[in-house]
Structures are given as C-alpha cells and as structure tokens.
Specification:
heterodimer; A: mainly alpha; globular; B: alpha/beta; eight-stranded mixed β-sheet; 12 helices; 45% helix
Chain lengths: 195, 309
C-alpha cells in the first residue's frame, strides 16, 4: 500500500464518501488494518483533546498508555458489535450486507473526528469557552461521520438516504431496549430465585 | 499528485502540528504542576498540604477503594519531603476501614509529628472508628458540630449464607489442613471455639486502638474507656469528652494549621485533587501486572475485620 492509496482513504472519507464506498467494497479484509489505525488515531485524538480541557498532571502518562489501550479495545469492541447488529438488520431488510464492509465503513467514517484537537487547541489558546466548542465540534463531527457512513452504506446497497439513517440508528435503539429488558428480566429472575 | 491531494496533505500536516502543539502544552503544564505524585505549584511559597481520606480505608490497591492507605501514606511522604509544606491538614470523611490499613496511616502521621510538622485533622460528615483512629494521631482535631465520630471499637463480620445455601441446594466440599482453616466460612454456623478465637483477635485490636487513641491524644486510657464502647457521638459531644479539640469547619482547621506553623493567613494551600476517575485509571496498571498477593487476598474478601461503626 503506497502513500497515494493511504491518502485516498482520507480524501474519499472527507470529500467523496461514494468513492470511499467503492474502495472498501473490494476485498473487505484488506482494509481492516487501515480501519484499526483510524480507530486508534481517533481514540488518541480524543484523549489529547480531553486532556487539554482537564487539569494537566502526570496522570496524562497513564491516560496516553493504559488509558489508550483500554479505550482502543473498548472502542473497537463497540464498533464490531454495532457493525454486527447493523449487518444483521440490513440482511433482515433484504440486503446482501457484508460484516467486513460495514465494519470498514463505520470505522473510516470516524476520520473527521481527528479535527477535534485543532478545534480544542484554538479555543483553549484563546481562553474562549473551550468546553462549549469541544461539545459543539463533537456534535458537528459526529453528524459529519454519520453522513459519511450513511453515504457509504446507501451507495453500496442502493438504499435511500433517510432509510439508511434509520437502519444505522436501529442497532442503538435495539441495544438500548434489549439492555433494559435484560435488566428487568434479570432482576425478576434473581428475586424469584432468592424467594 | 493532484491539487486535491496536496490540499489534503496540508490539512493533515496541520492536524499533526496541532497534536504536537497540544502534547507540548500538556507536557509543559504537567512539568510545572507535578512533583513526586503531588499537585504542587512551583511558583507558590510555604503553605499547608491537604490530604483527603474519603470513604472506606483499605490497603488493597483495589480500584474501588476510595481511601487507599498506600496512596495516603505516599501522599503524606511526598508532602513531608517538600520543604514548602509547613503544616498538613487531613480532611477525613470516612466510616473507618480495615485494621492494618488504618494503623499504617496512624503510624505515618505519628512519625511526621516527630518531625515537628503540625498535623490537623478536619472532620467532615463522618469520621468514625478507623476515621477517628487516624484523627487521634494528629496534633489537633477540628470537628463540625454535626459530625458523626467516635465508634471506638473493632468489628469482624462474615456473612452466614447457610440458609440460602440450603435453599438453593448448594453444598461445600471443604478439604482443610487444620480445624480452624475455614474459620468464618459462610456455608455453616460458627462454633463456640471459633467465636472465642475471633473474640481474642478483636479484643487485642481493641486494646491497641484504645491505647493508640490515648497516646495520640495525650490522655489516660481510663479517660477514653467510658466512651470506647463502640458508641457514636456528635462533634459537640466529642469536644465535651475531650476526644476532639474544638468545633470548626475545614477553613478553621486550615487556619489552625497556619497558626501552628506560623504561616501568614494567605499562605498557599496544596490540595490533593485526584478525581475518582483518575485514581481508577491509575490503578489500571495493576491489571497488567497481576500480583500473587492480590490473588490470595481476593479469596478472603468476604471476611471483614475492621474498625467500622
């Protein structure tokens, strides 16, 4: 993989999500390393941005080592679970969804998140409401990421844009409802067992 | 390479530059603020160091421990080694904790007193049992009127789940090397001999507790004994029984420390502000370096032997 190919991932994700969709549509497994690197960079950027906003102590050394490893693993696990759920939902919806493609699409759609550090650094240096702008930029970058994921999936499986957003949001809704039901059922079973 | 790619490279280079700048800023601020695990501002002069003992006192290094004795002892050491620290205020909001952990903190405070560092205890909502034990080692105790304190005594607890086990049909197979090896086992009733053995340990720890409180407070043991029956009392009663020196807030304790150290009223305060989340991540290193000692300790986590109300 040469520099031009690596740049193509970033360029496509930021400017032309349809092209990104075409790139990752070929050989899912080939793009896993790039996806993992993107997730690692995003986690690293988040830690740096949040460290800029909080009290700066030698605790930063822990955050950037153990904290980075823990967050990376957690982030990757969440991504895989979410992608798995989304794949199943798309397959139930009648689309030939591939888990590998969805993982790559969701991971690479997070590329805009790298801009969080420059935003926080600027407002932190200006002493101008850095926490507010961190929140606002986080929201804006999340919407940008959602847009990229939506365009990729929409393009790959020929789904309408609004419908795609619905499909992307469904795993989160399902996971929330399931977690709630498991909590209630678990509580009832435990109480029944003790009684 | 086309124009768009060049623009992208420029943007990515700026992002990398921003990250480098951010890390440099964090590192510089970090260097300024930190010395041997304490948050001390190098630009400020002599002042009072603060140590916070919040929650149950333990020495396990457990991530859930709110008042880790190792951390508190290390913090006290760091403050004692810093030439700008002329007095220490120990803010206590704790119902007590395990015997050994409490004694470690007590011993450390006494050793600092011998170095002529005035140490003042400031009690919050609760400073009972082990919380009071460590306060008694200080030069003076400043207590709020409504603080719950006292509870001078030792307690050992182990859950008796025999009824639950019987109900669920669970039976334990115990292979042991000595008759008391499974003392305080949760699956059966405790025998009278076992009860006596535990009572001896409790009595021994209780005697140590009372004698240490008397030594720390410069009082006779006989003066402590009438109130050392496990009862709790308010801050006002503690002053009345001479188990605390004066009523007052955290600020009053701070001022008392300044007075004892002959510091001006506006002298610096070096607080310990590590948040629970910070401490939680700090202890993550233990996950990567598991110790046999911790694994052995975890087997006995259901047995409690503590200074607790």
């Amino acid at each position: 993989m040469n520099v031009i190919q690596i740049l193509d991932y970033w360029y496509s994700a930021l400017i032309d999500p349809e092209k990104l969709s075409q790139i990752i549509a070929v050989e899912d497994k080939k793009h896993f390393i790039v996806s993992a690197v993107v997730v690692a960079i995003v986690v690293f950027m988040d830690i740096v941005a949040q460290s800029l906003l909080s009290t700066q102590t030698s605790f930063f050394n822990y955050k950037i080592t153990y904290g980075f490893i823990a967050l990376f693993l957690l982030h990757a696990l969440c991504l895989i679970i979410y992608a798995g759920l989304l794949t199943v939902i798309l397959q139930i919806g009648g689309y030939q969804a591939s888990g590998g493609y969805i993982i790559n699409a969701l991971a690479l759609s997070q590329i805009p998140r790298i801009f969080i550090v420059p935003v926080v650094l600027i407002f932190k240096s200006l002493y101008f409401a850095p926490v507010f702008f961190y929140s606002a930029a986080s929201l804006a970058l999340f919407i940008w990421s959602l847009f990229i994921a939506m365009r990729c999936i929409s393009q790959r499986y020929q789904i309408e844009s609004l419908k795609t957003i619905g499909y992307i949001a469904l795993p989160a809704i399902l996971a929330g409802v399931t977690a709630f039901l498991i909590l209630v059922a678990g509580g009832m079973v435990l109480i029944g067992l003790i009684k | 390479m086309d124009k768009n790619r060049r623009i992208l490279i420029a943007i990515l280079a700026m992002v990398v530059f921003a990250v480098v700048l951010a890390i440099i800023q964090i590192s510089i601020t970090m260097q300024r603020q930190m010395t041997i695990g304490t948050r001390i501002n190098l630009t400020e002069g002599p002042g009072v160091g603060i140590v916070r003992v919040y929650g149950r006192i333990e020495a396990t290094g457990d991530m859930m421990a709110q008042a880790n004795a190792d951390y508190i002892v290390k913090r006290l050491d760091a403050l004692a080694q810093d030439s700008r620290i002329r007095a220490i205020v120990i803010r206590i909001n704790s119902p007590g904790g395990t015997v050994a952990a409490t004694q470690e903190i007590y011993t450390k405070i006494l050793s600092l007193r011998k170095k002529n560092i005035p140490i003042i205890a400031s009690m919050g909502d609760v400073a009972a049992s082990g919380g009071y034990y460590i306060a008694s080692a200080c030069n003076a105790i400043v207590v709020n009127y409504g603080t719950i304190t006292g509870s001078i005594g030792v307690i050992a607890m182990a859950p008796n789940l025999k009824g639950l086990f019987d109900k669920l049909g669970i039976r334990m197979n115990v292979i042991k090397s000595g008759r008391y090896k499974d003392i305080l086992a949760m699956h059966r009733e405790i025998s009278p001999e076992e009860l006596q053995l535990i009572q001896q340990i409790i009595d021994s720890s209780y005697q140590k507790f009372v004698h240490d409180v008397a030594a720390g407070r410069n009082m006779a043991v006989s003066d402590i004994m009438p109130y050392a029956d496990g009862r709790v009392f308010t801050g006002n009663q503690a002053v009345e029984y001479k188990l605390a020196d004066e009523l007052g807030s955290y600020d009053d304790a701070l001022n008392k420390a300044r007075t004892l150290a002959k510091l001006p009223d506006d002298s610096a305060v070096y607080d310990d502000t590590a948040s629970p989340i910070e401490r939680l991540l700090m202890t993550m290193s233990s996950f990567f370096k598991p110790k046999l000692e911790q694994m052995v300790n975890s087997q006995y986590s259901l047995v409690e032997y503590s200074y607790l109300p």
